[in-house]
Every structure is written in structure tokens, then in C-alpha cells.
TrEMBL record:
Keyword Transferase: yes
Keywords on record: Aminotransferase, Pyridoxal phosphate, Transferase
Protein name per its UniProtKB record: Aminotransferase class III-fold pyridoxal phosphate-dependent enzyme
GO terms, molecular function: identical protein binding; pyridoxal phosphate binding; transaminase activity
InterPro entries in UniProt: Aminotrans_3 (IPR005814), Aminotrans_3_PPA_site (IPR049704), Class-III_PLP-dep_AT (IPR050103), PyrdxlP-dep_Trfase (IPR015424), PyrdxlP-dep_Trfase_major (IPR015421), PyrdxlP-dep_Trfase_small (IPR015422)
Organism annotation: Panacibacter microcysteis
Stated family: Belongs to the class-III pyridoxal-phosphate-dependent aminotransferase family.
Cofactor dependency: pyridoxal 5'-phosphate
Length: 438
């Protein structure tokens, strides 16, 4: 039971937040944090919390990995900022080399470092338009690509962009190819062919393929609810893009760096994108992101059209490089598989044991989620119960976050370095809360 001091301190922090911070900055979980390590956060009053949110997918390598902390400290003592456009420095190039080695895009790959996933998306679109000399971009229903203007235009959920228009022109949206083998009468290949045919018809009724610069897709949707694109669809999409001269952009901001059991979700598909965007877990929490792409496409951008004062900051580069090296040392991809197997087994147990409130389980690797529903009906989302589960878990020492168009998806983005007993403890808390609400 929380002490009066704990409650008072937490209330004080949220009162200050309300006084100082715009209301539009959402509260995704009613917790506080003073410091953290591994998969544990310690709140403002010293209470330990098991972290199943991972800073919204940022902490695959855990909170404050010692090697990353040391790299930040050492780099900060040498050089904090010069701007890469003003004076070249080695940490930027070292990180670019490392990214190219683990995430090659064909015969030759180039890298542009930026500060956030949204910024990476903005620049990927600019590069694609310049490379193709075409204006249009196609995105998917349920997709989330950020809150800057182009990224917000690409983002599907209207709650994230209410009152912010007019939006960027020449953005078109098609349905995401969500495939559920248990419910579909079509095979995956036939379903993929059907969806690709819909896209071809879209080119006749909405925008000509000759005017489309790029198609951008999350292979596993993040905010959209962890829907996974079928392999057959992505392979057929690659063929279609090649035939039509359209660039294929994979948004891997949340799905990268071990989350799906591989460095990239695209490795599950045997497909290489033309351009890709990265952020979140590539830096253990520092603001760093990247656009990567085939060298000839990246070089199509006119000098001066991409860049930024802080892009590829030396301290952030050092943190990212140390993060990736630490991930290599602990075999982050194997950990992604291990954590994913444990979580999927438990989620499927939830689905079987509590079918009146737990719906579809989906995801890839350790990027997993389930729907909270009413009366065992997948068409009846239960956002109210979802929030109750989240808040009760928080009170019992487990931090989780939600997702989905209807706010009824519970997703797991715990650090992949989480100790096995801690992972099971967190899942036990979650199951106990679920069982109390059947």
C-alpha cells in the first residue's frame, strides 16, 4: 500500500505538470520515475516499477546500460556540438558505418542522421520526391509516422492531428493489409494478391502510379495496434513498386533493433526497402534517428534540402554506437526471440482463459499486443476496461501502455534485456488484474 508521502509526492508532480505543461501532451500511464536501470523504474518515492513500456519502444537495451552511460560521459567531455555541416567528426561516421554493416540496403547504402522518427520520415519523403521527381505519397490506415506536418499527414488516427490542418497535399491512404489466418478464408498469398489488386485499382481511381514517389508502411504497426503485414503482401508490393518506379519506404522506428527478433523487421520478409527510417531503440533514449537508403537514391537529394543544426549530435552518436555494440554483445536479436516467445505464450493463454474480454493476439517477435473486448466479440472494443487494467497494473508496480484506433490494445515493449523472472512477475501481475475483471 502506498504511503501518504508517496501519494503526496506523485500528486505534487502531476500538479506541477498541469501548471507548467500544455494539456495536449498526453498521459499514457499514471506513473512517475526518478531513476531507472535495466527493466526497473524507481518512482519519485522509491517504489520499484516493472517497465513493460520501454519508453514507448525506446529501451530494447534497457534503462541506462553502463557502457552507454560511459560513452555519453566521455563524449560530452570531448565535444558536445559543432554541427556536422560545419566540422566533420568521427563519431557520426563511425555510427554510419555500423548502421550500414547491420542494415544494408543493397550494394551501397548511405545514412543521414537526424533527431527523431518524425524527422526521419520528413526527410525520407523529401528524398523520395527528389529521386523520382514525383509528388504523391501513399500511406496506410492505422499507420503512425509522427507529429510534424508531413509525418502527421501520413499518420492515420485523427485524434493525433485534430485541429492541425490543412495537411500536406498529395498524401493518399489505403487500407492496411491486416491478415488473420484464423478468420480469413483466403490463403495468405491469395489475400496478398487481392490487396495488391486493390492498390492497382487505387491507381486508377485516386492517383496515377506515375505520380507516386513512394509508398511508406510499417511492417508492424505501432500505435495502430501491432498489426503485422503478411510476407506475401510485402513481396508483391516490392514487385509492384519496382514495376511502377515507386520507392518503397519501411518505417522501422518502433520495430527495429531486436524488437522483432532481428535488427530489422524487413529481414523477416526477404525484401530490401529503397529507404527506411529508424529511431527509438537505436540510442537508449537520446534523441537520435536515421534515414537510410540505397546510395543512388540518397544522393538524389539536392544539397541544402536535408540536414539540421543538431542532426547527428556527437553525444547522441556516441550513445547510439555504444548501444548497438552492447546489443551485439548481449545478442539482442536472440533476446527478442526469447522474450517474444514467453510473452506470446502467456498472451495466448490469456485469450484462451479469458475469452470474454481478451480478443486477438498479434505481433512479431517481442512486439506483441492483444485486444480488450466486450462479451467475447472482437467487433466490440473495450477502451474503458483497457484503461482500468493499465491503471490497476500501475498501482501494483507494472507499467504498461495502450494502443489502437479504439484505445483497446495492450502492448508490450519491455526492455529485451529484462531478467526472465522479472518478465514472469510482470505477466503475473497483468494476468491477476485481467482475471479480476472477467
Amino acid at each position: 500500500m502506498e504511503s501518504v508521502a508517496t501519494i503526496a509526492k506523485k500528486d505534487e508532480l502531476y500538479q506541477r505538470r498541469k501548471r507548467l505543461v500544455p494539456n495536449a501532451l498526453g498521459i499514457f500511464n499514471p506513473s512517475s520515475v526518478a531513476y531507472a536501470h535495466g527493466a526497473i523504474m524507481v518512482d519519485a518515492d522509491g517504489k520499484e516499477l516493472i517497465d513493460f513500456a520501454g519508453g514507448i519502444g525506446v529501451l530494447n537495451a534497457g534503462h541506462c546500460p553502463p557502457a552507454v552511460v560511459t560513452a555519453i560521459q566521455e563524449q560530452a567531455a570531448r565535444l558536445i556540438h559543432s554541427s556536422f555541416n560545419v566540422a566533420v567528426y568521427e563519431t557520426y561516421l563511425d555510427l554510419a558505418d555500423k548502421l550500414v554493416s547491420i542494415l544494408p540496403h543493397g550494394d551501397a547504402t548511405k545514412v543521414m542522421l537526424v533527431n527523431s522518427g518524425a524527422e526521419a520520415v520528413e526527410n525520407a519523403v523529401k528524398i523520395a520526391r527528389q529521386a523520382t521527381k514525383r509528388p504523391a505519397v501513399i500511406a496506410y490506415g492505422g499507420g503512425f509516422h509522427g507529429r510534424t506536418m508531413m509525418a502527421m499527414s501520413l499518420t492515420s488516427k485523427v485524434a493525433y492531428k485534430s485541429g492541425c490542418g490543412p495537411f500536406a497535399p498529395e498524401v493518399y491512404r489505403v487500407d492496411y493489409p491486416a491478415y488473420n489466418a484464423k478468420k480469413q478464408t483466403l490463403s495468405e498469398e491469395a489475400f496478398a494478391a487481392q490487396e495488391i489488386q486493390k492498390l492497382k485499382l487505387f491507381f486508377k481511381s485516386n492517383v496515377r502510379s506515375e505520380d507516386v514517389a513512394a509508398i511508406i508502411i510499417e511492417l508492424v504497426q505501432g500505435e495502430g495496434g501491432f498489426y503485422v503485414a503478411p510476407k506475401a503482401y510485402i513481396q508483391q508490393l516490392r514487385t509492384l513498386c519496382d514495376e511502377a518506379g515507386i520507392l518503397l519506404i519501411f518505417d522501422e522506428v518502433q520495430s527495429g533493433f531486436g524488437r522483432t527478433g532481428k535488427w530489422a523487421a524487413y529481414e523477416h520478409y526477404d525484401v530490401t526497402p529503397d529507404l527506411s527510417t529508424w529511431a527509438k531503440s537505436m540510442g537508449s533514449g537520446v534523441p537520435i534517428a536515421a534515414v537510410m537508403g540505397k546510395a543512388h537514391i540518397m544522393d538524389a537529394a539536392v544539397p541544402g534540402t536535408i540536414g539540421g543544426t543538431y542532426a547527428g549530435n556527437p553525444v547522441c552518436c556516441a550513445a547510439s554506437l555504444a548501444t548497438i555494440e552492447y546489443m551485439e554483445a548481449v545478442n539482442i536479436n536472440a533476446l527478442g526471440v526469447k522474450v517474444g516467445n514467453i510473452v506470446r505464450e502467456r498472451f495466448e493463454h490469456f485469450q484462451q482463459t479469458y475469452p470474454t474480454i481478451i480478443g486477438e493476439v498479434r505481433g512479431l517477435g517481442a512486439m506483441l499486443a492483444f485486444d480488450v473486448i466486450k462479451d467475447g466479440d472482437d467487433t466490440k472494443p473495450n477502451a474503458e476496461l483497457t484503461r482500468k487494467i493499465m491503471e490497476t497494473c500501475a498501482a501494483r508496480g507494472l507499467v504498461i501502455i495502450t494502443a489502437g484506433l479504439h484505445g483497446n490494445v495492450i502492448r508490450i515493449l519491455s526492455p529485451l534485456v529484462i531478467e526472465e523472472d522479472l518478465l514472469y512477475r510482470g505477466l503475473d501481475i497483468l494476468e491477476q488484474v485481467i482475471s479480476e475483471n472477467v
